[in-house]
Amino acid sequence: MVAFIGTVGTTSGRARSVRPQRCPTRQRRVLVKAEFFDAWSRRCIPEPNLRKVVDALQNVAIELAEQIGAAPITKIQGHAAGMNASGDSQKELDVIANHAFKRACEASGCVSVMASEEDEQPVEIPSTIGPGDVGIPSYVVCFDPLDGSRNIESSIPTGSIFGIYAYRPDLGVEANVLQPGINQVAAGYILFSSATQMVLTTGSGAHIFTVDWQTRRFVCTSESIHMPKRGQVYSLNDARYFDWPKGLQDYIDTIRQGKGENAGKKYSARYVCSLVADFHRTLYTGGWAGNPRSHLRLVYEANPLAFIAEQAHGRGSDGKRRILEIQPAALHQRLPLFLGSSDDLNELEKYDVQQKDGSYDV
């Protein structure tokens, strides 16, 4: 790696050449016990059509990481692009990400229905798998193409979220999307940050993959991550404290003072306002991340992340119920969401923590 090439000034005012030098901190690049994603998927996802779908989505991750990383240069990070089906303002990168996910689903040849947070209705795809192909599985993919896009202008971490279900030809298009989260056969999210990482589960643990930019491929960097049973960090918008129900105020006051069930530990707040980023930290450190208001979408955000949380030995709750057991009633249904350590969520659910709808904006 070249540290500097060019000329520098001298005391005589004459420029002198500087030889290219190797960065003194450079170390030999070694991938220790790292397995490329394609090899991992062949080993760990035995169903070939599901493997094709997941492979297509990890390619989207690399494509979007490059576009997001270049956004300050291309000047598209702050461009408004109207409103989405959920009534949220869109950035141009929301639209770009949405198109990228749709193209990937179509190109896989194994997706029969796709549903995006950005679109009003799901889309049925003329799959290469026909009704007569008995026993050949096809899939339903639900996704939030770019979570936290309002943070893009300041280069704060963002992400993408997806959940995958087995397609059921006996159900209609919308009914295939409105399956309870427990029916997911795979789920994942992509974190666009200092590293581009994909966290994926196919029902056998939660695994972390990181892009190696020298090869432009994901490598497996953590298999079967285990979220701590408790943490000392909670993640939600503390500025809205006075809008919360008394139960949530009491719970937060209790854990901040070290008077909760966690052996006298005082909790701290860490809040990015990017759900993927806040949950990703929680996956490592424990504690919880959430929103007490009916703000987050059951189909596109809550179900996939709750599935990952459970596969990492954590939990997903709306403050009262297990997320994965909730039967969706609408494509863009919203609900309170809390994701994190099992013991922390067990304690949280002893309080009345759900915010009334529409009381404030995040």
UniProtKB/TrEMBL annotation:
CDD domains: FBPase (cd00354). It catalyses: beta-D-fructose 1,6-bisphosphate + H2O = beta-D-fructose 6-phosphate + phosphate. One of its GO terms (molecular function) is fructose 1,6-bisphosphate 1-phosphatase activity. Coiled coil: none annotated. GO terms for cellular component: cytosol. InterPro entries: FBPase_C_dom, FBPase_class-1, FBPase_N, FBPtase. Keywords: Carbohydrate metabolism, Hydrolase. Residues 49-222 form the Fructose-1-6-bisphosphatase class I N-terminal domain. Residues 227-351 form the Fructose-1-6-bisphosphatase class 1 C-terminal domain. Belongs to the FBPase class 1 family. HAMAP family: FBPase_class1. This is fructose-bisphosphatase.
